[in-house]
Amino acid sequence: PQALVTAELSSAFPDNGGYSLWVQAAFGDFWAVQESYWSWFSGVVDSALYPVLLYTSATHLIGGLPLNSGAAEGNATAALSLASLGKGDFPDEARATLWSCLGDEDKSCGAEYLYRLLLLLAFTAPNCLSSALVGRGLVGLGLFVMSPYLALVVAALPRARPANFRLRPTKFKPAAMVSVAYWSLSGFDSVSTFAGEVEAPHRTLPRALLCGCLLMVVCYVLPLTAGVLADEEWAHWKDGSLTHVAQLVGGRWLGGWVLASSALSNWGLFSSELLEDSFQLLGMAEAGLAPRFFAVRHPRLGTPLLAILFQLVILSALIGFDFESIMCIDNFFSAAAATLEFAAAVQLRRRRPAMSRPFR
């Protein structure tokens, strides 16, 4: 539903700003401001997840890196980052936030924050240099990220046992599952914020959204199904288990490939989110919903540099928190903004039925 709404309204409003413009047309400036800042803040918070995820993965590739927050057993950080080649156990004493221990005599919290900050700066640099380069790079990166999971599916086929589906998970947390599922499956509206940068958005965006929906289903269902069929212990899966399954069916090389894919995908997710958020802030400024200086682009590179740097300051604070804390804030604002977007789509159908909608 979110992809269909985005395809329809991006074709009707093919300008930077996306859902902010939809809500402004449907409900006026007040709600447009709420939508703009809810969505933008949700996106900025979401961007903070990926340096945290990648750092957690790196601690299992590079010995000696400190790990003080967000790594307790069962934490979604390690689960989503596929953070080990074994069973993924982590120290129970891990803290929920680095900010609570930066003043300790043990300097490991400060070192961890510094490493995360360096990752954040490295992640941000490509967006400052070229939006077009980021877009093209993400296409190639997407192919690399998906390829080891295709290899995992193929390698798992000889070991497939349908009887494994009858096993029940030993631990089931419905609330955590719903929260992670929503975070994983939402975000199709993001593309609307830079619709003005896309050639023929009324044709390009619906096709891209359709491809995105199909790829999302395939990329989740196939590897997880293959893993369940091949691993008799899937009912006991925990942090790092999918990487463990890759090692089980294909050897250590496949486990390492899946882990490298997971690490690089975090950069891709960060870059795409930062691209969306910076152009959303630019579009808000152009529409009068944010200070005008955020509409300024670099005179030579054409990137919304001030918008990117402003977000970088906020992200520098957020990376001190753990995955679950960040995700809860992200989902709250994201769900509120998505509700307003659906309401705007209904309102525009009702009040402006004759409005041009190349895709409907």
What does this structure look like?
With about 350 residues, the protein is mainly α. Helices cover about 65% and strands about 0% of the residues. The protein has 13 helices and no strands. α2 packs across α13, α6 runs antiparallel to α12 and α7 packs across α10. The longest helix has about 35 residues. The radius of gyration is 21 Å and the shape is globular. About 5% of the residues have low confidence.
Which key phrases capture this entry?
mainly alpha; 65% helix
Alpha carbon gap, first and last residue: 12 Å
Q: What portion of residues is helical?
A: 55-70%
DSSP E strands, number: 0
Please provide the ordered H/E string of secondary-structure elements: HHHHHHHHHHHHH
**In percent terms, what proportion of residues is strand?**
under 5%
Structural class by secondary-structure content? mainly alpha
What would you report as the Rg, rounded to the nearest angstrom?
21 Å
- Low-confidence sequence ranges: 70-95
Show the helix and strand layout.
Elements: H1 2-12, H2 19-27, H3 29-47, H4 49-58, H5 76-81, H6 108-129, H7 131-156, H8 174-185, H9 201-230, H10 241-250, H11 252-286, H12 305-318, H13 323-351
Give a quick summary of the entry.
With 360 residues, this protein is mainly alpha-helical.
